[in-house]
Design goal:
Strand content of chain A: 15-25%
Number of helices of chain A: 9
Strand order of the largest sheet of chain B: 1-2-4-3
Number of domains of chain A: 2
Number of helices of chain B: 2
Oligomer: heterodimer
CATH topology of chain B: Translation Initiation Factor IF3
CATH superfamily of the largest domain in chain A: Sulfite Reductase Hemoprotein, domain 1
Largest interface: A-B, 12 and 12 residues
Largest sheet of chain B: 4 strands, mixed
CATH class of the largest domain in chain A: Alpha Beta
Number of strands of chain A: 13
Strand order of the largest sheet of chain A: 5-6-7-10-13
Number of strands of chain B: 4
CATH superfamily of chain B: TusA-like domain
CATH class of chain B: Alpha Beta
Shape of chain B: globular
Helix content of chain B: 25-40%
Radius of gyration of chain B: 11 Å
Shape of chain A: globular
CATH architecture of chain B: 2-Layer Sandwich
Strand content of chain B: 25-35%
Largest sheet of chain A: 5 strands, mixed
Order of helices and strands of chain A: HEEHEEHEHEEHEEHEEEEHHH
Distance between the termini of chain A: 53 Å
Order of helices and strands of chain B: EHEHEE
Helix content of chain A: 25-40%
Chain lengths: ~290, ~80
């Protein structure tokens, strides 16, 4: 019987150069695995692989050297530890995320919760080509949002609260964009220079900055054969439902317009950046 | 510089680095009674960007931060709670 490599690849079984050997990619969300899942991966790697696992460049884990005849046994064994196979090929890939505000002092949003939501919504959806989502918690951009087809970056919009301010100047010191000046104990905030990093709010010892947490989204990032930094169309998105609506619009635009094997950036370029921007802006304003 | 506040104790944390900076400040605040005021001399850079916020998160009240124009700052804190 001929081996159906396409179906195997779709289910995360990456064909190796060694005949009848596969590197199995498992499903990971936002870079987190439970101890139980890790133990099961270790067990399967010992029993069916060569006793090691590979950490992929996008936060997944692969177990190399699984033999074709063991595919079903491996699936069953992994399922016992709550580990599912991942995906490869033309579909929505692993949703990546940094640790975000649940753990990181710099985080502006709960990246894991959002990655989980995106995973539930889109993971493995069939598309004309691969489609990557990445979620980073803040402007430090540890997760490198702009290299994804859709990159999401946590952000904080601030407003100065004069009555709580003691004019200490810490916000001006921590601001990396030169958006804040303190003169005679009074803050002068140039909102046009603000990049929504939230450092002023985080450093303030008297809670004199009001914080609204939100998202900055970029589209059309690539970091493979060609490199392109994803582009932002809407500067700051406050509402999570609006963010999800915008993700829906982006993925629908790709599904409806992309040629097979064409990455999102090239679809946007071919159809027209202005056409795409109009669509996203309509959803944002809708 | 801090003439408008009656300073009950003064510490200098310019000779230590994070996280000892915050630990020294915390210990000094523990020695005080509620409502008493501590003056802390701290370095520019990481200490001044982190220590005031950390003290605030412990529940104390930041009253003032002055730039001493010599690479150090003076932070005035009122102890809140026991």
């Amino acid at each position: 019987m001929a081996t159906d490599y396409a179906t195997l690849k779709k289910g995360g079984w990456m064909r190796q150069k060694q005949k009848n050997n596969f590197s199995l990619r498992v499903r990971v969300v936002g870079g987190n695995l439970t101890a139980t899942q890790l133990a099961k991966i270790a067990e399967v790697a010992e029993k069916y692989g060569e006793g090691y696992a590979h950490l992929t460049s996008r936060q997944s884990v692969e177990i190399p050297f699984i033999k074709l005849e063991n595919v079903e046994d491996v699936k069953a064994a992994l399922a016992e530890g709550g580990v599912e196979p991942g995906v490869c090929g033309p579909r929505v890939r692993t949703i990546t995320a940094c640790q975000g505000e649940a753990v990181c002092p710099s985080g502006c949003i709960d990246t894991y919760a959002l990655a989980k939501e995106l995973d539930d919504r889109y993971f493995a959806r069939e598309l004309p080509h691969k489609f990557k989502f990445g979620v980073t918690g803040c402007q430090n951009n540890c997760l490198k949002a702009e290299e994804n087809d859709v990159g999401i970056k946590g952000a904080i919009k601030v407003k100065w609260l004069e009555d709580k301010c003691i004019g200490c100047g810490l916000c001006a010191k921590t601001c990396r964009k030169g958006a804040i000046k303190v003169e005679n104990k009074k803050v002068i905030f140039d909102e046009s220079q603000c990049n929504f990093c939230g450092r002023c709010y985080k450093s303030c010892p008297t809670d004199a900055w009001e914080d609204t947490h939100g998202y900055i989204v970029s589209f059309g990032g690539l970091f493979g054969n060609n490199i392109n930094k994803g582009e932002t169309i809407i500067p700051f998105i406050e509402d999570k439902q609006k963010l999800l609506d915008i993700c829906d619009a982006a993925i629908t635009f790709f599904a409806e317009n992309a040629k097979p094997g064409e990455r999102f950036k090239y679809t946007i370029d071919r159809i027209g950046r202005d056409v795409f921007a109009k669509k996203i802006t309509e959803v944002y304003n809708g | 510089m801090a003439e408008e506040f009656k300073i009950d104790d003064t510490i200098d944390i310019t000779d230590v680095v994070c996280p000892t900076t915050f630990v020294k400040a915390k210990v000094a605040l523990e020695e005080l009674e509620e409502g008493q005021i501590l003056s802390i001399r701290l370095n520019d850079g990481e200490p001044v960007q982190n220590v005031p916020r950390s003290i605030k998160e412990e529940g104390h009240e930041i009253l003032k931060l002055d730039d001493n124009q010599d690479g150090t700052f003076t932070l005035i804190v009122k102890k809140v709670g026991d």
